[in-house]
């Protein structure tokens, strides 16, 4: 009877962990953390508004960039309440159901970002391989359908995850390892077999991040082969230069992701601080660095920033 009661018991809340060993410095860390979120939200907001308001940017390349900025904004908004709650107000508890909701949206936006990076890689393939047919291959309809497929895939793949967690009993520790809820972290606290969760998590990762990373690699192998066939060195350099921003975005997303995955699988002996910092980097670095990279490479976005901060100067020059 007792075992039956335990099997149905779940914690009312989980306790989130900030950065282990640095608890006394949370007050000072709150300011740079707040600045990080401001940069992420403001930077991605500028990208979205610029692409919306500038007709020259109404092409597939920038539509996909807009999707990437929306995914980064969603990712930042998912983690912001719990992160700022810990570092600003020392509020470490999160309700069980709220934890599941946060987990779902974090993994969904992460899957969306991965899918958008694949779409951007295909965009670069078409632009370099068939530049004269770029507009006829990547029409607005194709871009819309691609976005719908990316969104639908992310929603459907991640949808079972909260329900797989919900069925598990939790009656021992309720202390999570991070400042937000991740599937691997939550399921490790369960007091029952997590084989189904682990198997489904592995399948979901292979179907999204695994297949996406392979697609991106194959795309760039094709791009490199096409570029090497260009006769002039200047032409090759110009073609490769159009891929620099996307390559940076891919590295910004996948390097922390691979680091988190490796640590979760093989880094059990590492300190909790390492686990926490890698998870924070995985979710905070892309929303912050992607706008910076694309602002440096896109003159229309730079002009928009100048208009925001120095409107008088722009008006007088105009």
From TrEMBL:
Superkingdom of this protein's organism: Eukaryota
Source organism phylogeny: Eukaryota, Metazoa, Chordata, Craniata, Vertebrata
Name used for this protein in its record: G-protein coupled receptors family 1 profile domain-containing protein
CDD domains with a match to the protein in the record: 7tmA_OR51-like (cd15222)
GO terms for biological process, alphabetical: cellular response to lipid
Tagged with keyword Metal-binding: no
Pfam family, one: 7tm_4
Signal peptide: none
Keyword line: G-protein coupled receptor, Membrane, Olfaction, Receptor, Sensory transduction, Transducer, Transmembrane, Transmembrane helix
TM spans (from-to): 26-49, 61-89, 101-122, 142-165, 213-231, 243-263, 275-294
SUPFAM superfamilies referenced in this protein's UniProt entry, alphabetically: Family A G protein-coupled receptor-like
Bilayer topology term: Multi-pass membrane protein
Subcellular location: Membrane
Assigned GO CC terms: plasma membrane
Ranges where the G-protein coupled receptors family 1 profile domain occurs: 43-294
Main localization (coarse): membrane
Function: Putative odorant or sperm cell receptor.
GO terms assigned for molecular function: G protein-coupled receptor activity; olfactory receptor activity
């Amino acid at each position: 009877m007792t075992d039956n009661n335990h099997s149905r018991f779940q914690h009312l809340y989980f306790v989130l962990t900030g950065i282990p060993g640095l608890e006394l410095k949370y007050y000072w860390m709150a300011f740079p953390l707040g600045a990080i979120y401001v940069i992420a939200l403001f930077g991605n907001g500028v990208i979205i508004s610029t692409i919306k308001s500038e007709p020259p940017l109404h092409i597939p390349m920038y539509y996909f960039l807009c999707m990437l900025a929306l995914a980064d904004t969603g990712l930042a908004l998912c983690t912001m309440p719990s992160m700022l709650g810990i570092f600003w107000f020392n509020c470490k508890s999160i309700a069980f159901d709220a934890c599941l909701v946060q987990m779902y949206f974090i993994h969904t936006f992460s899957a969306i970002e991965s899918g958008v990076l694949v779409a951007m890689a295909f965009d670069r393939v078409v632009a370099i391989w068939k530049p004269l047919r770029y507009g006829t291959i990547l029409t607005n309809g194709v871009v819309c359908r691609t976005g719908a497929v990316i969104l639908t895939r992310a929603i459907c793949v991640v949808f079972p995850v909260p329900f797989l967690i919900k069925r598990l009993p939790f009656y021992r520790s309720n202390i999570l390892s991070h400042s937000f809820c991740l599937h691997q972290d939550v399921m490790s606290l369960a007091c029952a077999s997590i084989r189904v969760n682990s198997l489904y998590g592995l399948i979901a990762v292979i179907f999204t991040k695994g297949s996406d990373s392979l697609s991106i690699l194959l795309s760039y192998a094709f791009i490199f082969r096409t570029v090497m066939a260009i006769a002039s060195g200047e032409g090759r350099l110009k073609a490769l230069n159009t891929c620099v921003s996307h390559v940076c975005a891919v590295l910004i997303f996948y390097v922390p992701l691979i680091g988190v995955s490796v640590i979760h699988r093989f880094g059990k002996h590492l300190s909790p601080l390492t686990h926490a910092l890698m998870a924070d980097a995985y979710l905070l670095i892309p929303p912050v660095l992607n706008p910076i990279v694309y602002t440096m490479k896109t003159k229309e976005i730079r002009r928009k920033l100048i208009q925001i901060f120095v409107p008088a100067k722009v008006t007088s020059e105009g």
